[in-house]
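Lab notebook: predicted structure, single chain.

Context: the supervisor wants predicted structures on file for every construct in the current expression panel, including those that have not yet been purified. This is the next one on the list. No modifications to the sequence; it matches the entry in the shared construct table.
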Amino acid sequence: MWRHRTTRRPGAEPAGRFREHLRLGRKGLAIGIDIGGTKVAAGVVDAEGRILKEARRSTPGNDPRAVEQVIVELVEELGQGHRIWSVGIGAAGWMDLDGATVLFSPHLAWRNEPLRENLQRLLRRPVLLTNDADAAGWAEWRFGAGRGEDRLVCITLGTGIGGAMVMDGRLERGRFGVAGEFGHQIIQPGGHRCECGNRGCWEQYASGNALGREARELAAANSPMAQELLKAVGGRVGDITGVTVTELAKAGDPTARELLEDVGEWLGLGLANLAAALDPGTFVIGGGLCDAGELLVGPARTAFARNLTGRGFRPAARIELAALGPNAGLIGAADLSRVSSRMRS
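Prediction complete. Output recorded below exactly as produced.
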């Protein structure tokens, strides 16, 4: 879906025409499904982004057919008492530009999987596939912290770093459908090894995993600064995670706050790089790590201003915390499926 502007794909329409499609289909309900490594979250979403009904299941291992069955069960459960127009599926991984095939998903055994065709046959409804970060970014643009912004970049901070771009009312996915992998810009040549195979990727310095790793290294060195960290996990260094650090920082622990500040500075540096390349009006920062709020985003804003190219002689993008929380992915997937199906009808 959506890069080639000569085709009628969601996000490829001018903003005015897109809004006209939304006006014509304001009453349609859609189901959004967010597939993660451990859980599948689903909800009935109206045209204003409100969740009317929710359900959840555990992610059923790596069996693609089992995942399809869970999706069918959720749609049947949520569809009771509601007239569902379409179904949107958001998952980590790469989708083709038509939103028909999952090229690769790190959490599941999807490799060139024709998932849309399979699900449309089972569900007898229009189905759209999209990357989970794209779905979250779309939701924040439509209903959240990026509402009204013509050029939005959304960053999701969790285990790694995901990203999405909404430009002039369309979801920008690049020539091959894999744009937004911001976490793999190399920000420290020769730095920490990344799961992608490279060294020094941004997500090795500005993610929840990075925060936990730095805290564990501090504790393993028997630093007196790590006493509260060790106390929080009963002395088990390996149990320290980014969540551990975040909770201690919110409670006022100075070491945890210092660790978050370090991660925030790396975050701001990466955002400055993206601003130089993309020149957005707003960055929206979401994902689990954003539970830290201003303890993370405050240092990021400072580092962004310090590293922005042309600083002092150009307007600077706003940096805002996401507004929709963990439901952004399912809200965005539902909304995209509604817009897509109405454009094709």
